[in-house]
Amino acid sequence: MPVDLNELRSRVERAMLRDRHGLRRRLRAIRDEHDVRLERLVEEIELSVARRERRAAGVPRVTYPPDLPVVQKRDEIAAAIREHQVIVLCGETGSGKTTQLPKICLELGRGVAGMIGHTQPRRIAARTVAARIAEELQTPLGQAVGYKVRFSDKLSDDTYIKLMTDGILLAETQGDRFLEAYDTIIIDEAHERSLNIDFLLGYLKQLLPRRPDLKVIITSATIDPERFSRHFDNAPIVMVSGRTYPVETRYRPIELEDPDEDEPDLQQAILSAVDELWREGPGDMLIFLSGEREIRETAESLRRHHPPETEILPLYARLSFAEQQKVFKPTGRRRIVLATNVAETSLTVPGIRYVIDPGFARISRYAPRTRVQRLPIEPISRASADQRKGRCGRVSEGICIRLYSEEDYNSRPQFTDPEILRTNLAAVILQMKALRLGRVEEFPFIDPPDGRQIRDGYLTLHEIGAIDDRNELTDIGWALAKLPIDPRIGRMILQGAEENVLDDVLILAAALSIQDPRERPMDKADAADQAHARFRDENSDFVAFLNLWNAYNEQTRHLSSNKLRKWCQENFVSSVRMREWHDIHSQLREIAAELELPGSRRQAAGSGQQGKSRQSAASSRQPKSAIRNPQSAMEAQRYDAIHRSLLAGLLSNIGTKTDQFEYTGARHTKFHIFPGSGLFKSRPQWVMAAELVETTKLYARIVARIRPEWAERLGEHLVKRSYSDPHWNRQTAHVTAYEKVTLFGLTLVPRRSVHYGPIDPKQSREIFIRSALVEGDYDTTAPYFRHNQKLVDEINTLEAKRRNRDVLVDEQVRFDFYDARIPAGVHNGPAFEKWRRAAEPSNPRLLFMNRAELMRHAADDTTAELYPDVISVNGVTVPLLYHFEPGHPADGITARIPLAALNQVDAERFEWLVPGLLREKITALIKSLPKTLRVNFVPAPDWAAAAEKAMPYAKGSLYEALATFLSKGHGITVRPRDFDPGSLLDHLHMNFQIVDDAGKELAVSRDLAALRRQFGIAARQTFESSPPMEGQFNKDGLTRWDFGDLPESVEVKRNGMTLRGYPAIEDRGDSVSLRLFDTPQSAAVAMRGGLRRLFILQTRQEIAYIQRMIRGFDQLSLQFATIGTSDELKRQIAIAAADQALYGDKPSAESFAWQVRTREQFAQVAEDAWKRLNPAADQVTQVARDMLAAYHNVALQLQKTFPPLLQPSIEDIRRTLSRLVPRDFLIATPAQWLVHLPRFLKAVEIRLRKLLNAGLKRDQQAMAAIAPYLQRYRERLAAHRKQGIVDPALEHFRWMIEELHVSLFAQELKTSQPVSPKRLDELWMKVEG
Question: Which of 1056, 1114, 1065 has the alpha carbon at shortest distance from 1091?
């Protein structure tokens, strides 16, 4: 049968609204009556038309309660709806507009082609209104009348009137952009101006021109209806009066009773108002308060103030459903209801006759700067005050007491700011972008949001990765737009899928979407805290939710419904909210499955299979065991993954601890962890929070420990990276820099070394060329590099010798050389080597420099004679290193001395430096003279030139040679000590580097004497360990000269170095040993003792005879008894006699002994000494007799008791006696000074006599004069012994101190040679070290 297409088009207009668009589009695609698709299309059109006709026939009969004001205006309202697309119905509380308007629309034929959508601001209102209308229409709830709230609905295909929250209608715009499921939409309680309401009003404003068939009814209380009318092009306003009684308003402003108080006593004011209303007669009271804490305080005050039969009931959003229902079920007793501003609108509390309004409320406000949703306590607007007043007067005449003045009321703003002006717009912007509604700035809001709020909404979306830098939706944004939840929570779910912890994150996302199921009744707070402690986790409040979830699900597998509710009561958990939590979780799982998120299919399948069994369903919802041991590896990974997922939506809610209790958050906000948190005591360094809420302080609620590196990875698009100190890293062969990573002003990474090449290739290439190639800080074996570096090193050494950087071209020239050859993009070692290996085969000398390119001039005046690379010192070859860098420790010339040669080199040679620097040093020394001398040698450079020419180079001491030259040249006396070497620049002093056999540096100093003090003995031991020491010159147990001739010195090869050794024999007691010494001085001292021992061994019989025949030995032995034994005395006399026979009292005995080099020479010396042995023994015995007698005399006197005042001097005398007469005095005292010992002891005796004869003051003065010299001697002697140094000058200095002792204490004895402190100072200058 042919089909009339025109007739078919008219049939489409009689189909269901939601089908028409699709049917029209398909019909337009039909070409003619013979199209094969036509038959199927006709069938679908007829099905839709039939459904509409069935719905039209099934409309329930409408009846109206006659006493409602809105019913009395039913005809006027119906006419307005018929004649206008939009009307604004302004009805007072109790007018019946909410329940009767849908019925009026139904009676007008609306709700057939599409449903009558009726929005409510709260879920409880949507449910109760739906139930009330269904009851009035005498139809089961869910049939003709149904409802849909978040994750819960009760609807059918025959539903005409659909109650829902405004958020549900807003969410439906994503799948039904033209809202074709409805032919009428009622926006109830529009005056509340929630965010969803404002968005719906703007959306409908744009939609109405495209849906001329759609009727929109805006209902509002008597609060600025003209604003809604203007928004919809001056839509008509229908006013409906309320059904109320007169309300008296009384103003009772709170006054300060005590002028010193900062705040008025609100509790006392409330109690006074209650007393006042109590006297007015029966009736329930409604008291508005700011929050739960104020409700608890007021409840406690009222319980103490009024009789127990008064029922005091709280009412606030977080209250459990059961406790909320108590408010709506009167018990017959008089009631006082304590409520937050939730009781201002929507909810009608029955039986209220009196209202007390303190005038404050917690109003949510979002701060764009800190990005914190605050809940400050603020004065309410006049409209809110009127709403509170309207809560009474419904059962009889009412009274409203306002605890503020009438002037205060009149000064307040008329309306509360719409939510859109005080909230984050992220969700709105996300949906608008998904719906392609254009820019939010151009959207027709009733009150367009502030630009800062819009920017903050974009920032939130950008933070969670929902939009890109162009504010376009990303893949994450499109996915988030499909989730009917807060974008931040949606972002957590998406990240949970990526982290493979979707099970856990869905549970937590559902938990964050409801009120906390844990209850804390005011009268059982401690018990509730104790019960909740089992769920607490010290690292995360989110884990506490998982613990609660698992504990609840564990019970569902074993308990009946009644027992499960009892378990909830015992653990202070709301069973209603737990069911809501599970319902939301189930819906989220279904949504995740629709989005095909990883892991969601398994969940959805499990849910479907077990949906009929409560126990099975609960089991399927339990993801894993609770996180009880986050220290274990698997649990730690799971913990990290869960919290990374949560962090993806909370990046701006992180903080780091900056004080004991305070945290610094994003954009420099300061917050504290909420006291009820499981982390309140531990307070980890980094935390994230589900929300930041400002009450008395800014608190972080629902907190968890995090790691800053998580935020860096998740906030890659947000973090700011700054780089400092780009530098070349030789080890990695890359340019590196220090990276600082911040997020919202928080430093996540303070300092991290990163590869800088990809970040700034141009600068990195420049640093690479300058540092690696020009400065040579590069590890490579390439021939070009060794060649170029060798040239640069040679020229640098040349400049160091000249002490002038005027030869090597500057770094820029060398940089330009490489820059011209190395291609762009090469900024690290590996890339450079890859390029070089490819380029060099065709041009092998591509990177080779030549000397001419590197030198500014030839520097012909810098010769090897003036600036040698090595010098010879006492036969030791000493390398010289030149360095030119004033202020550097190595500036000048460094002599590289092997440890074994330390004692062999002559310090005086180094005073001359090198010829090229000698004149400069001489000039500086002349300028260092005292002014009285310096003026005679002007100009100093001329005198320096003359001195340089006249003085033999490197002969003796430079200071002595220069002093001699200057003295002769001007006829005045210049002494070496007149020069001030300390005033010279560092480079005019030789620097000494001591190295071991491997060339490793042991020490560096410009003080050679200090180095010898430190390493002298080690140097000698190193020298003696040389291989030649183990052969010809290393013999022990010698008793006669049978070892051949001894050369004065021999060359010793050590590690390629030539040293000089000095053979000598040394005394070993009963024999001698042949050794090789590192200095002639130490060898000479050893030789004297060695010759003496050989002589004694050859004259054993004569020595024994002398010991037996000592005259008066018994007397001597008695006097020596306090010092040592008689055998020791005999031994000392024998040794001293042998020494006297060999050397006499020659001061240069060591030099004499040193001359004995052959067996024949020793035989001659021994024969001559044998002849002098007996006289020498007599002489030594006499000296011992005289000395011991004097010693005995003084010792006896010192045994007396002396006054305390004399004790310091007496102790000094005892020390002098011990110094002069040690245990081995005959051996220890040099021969030339042995004969003077009796005189020195006599001086001690005279000093003691003078001291006892009132000579204390003079004694103290003399003692103070000698003390510094003794101190010097002891310190230097200890240093010399440590170094193994033998210094005759120090020995002479020691005995001249004894002569000074004679001069000061016993001048009448005379001294053997002139002595004074000044002469001692001069002698000290000659002491080594």
Answer: 1065
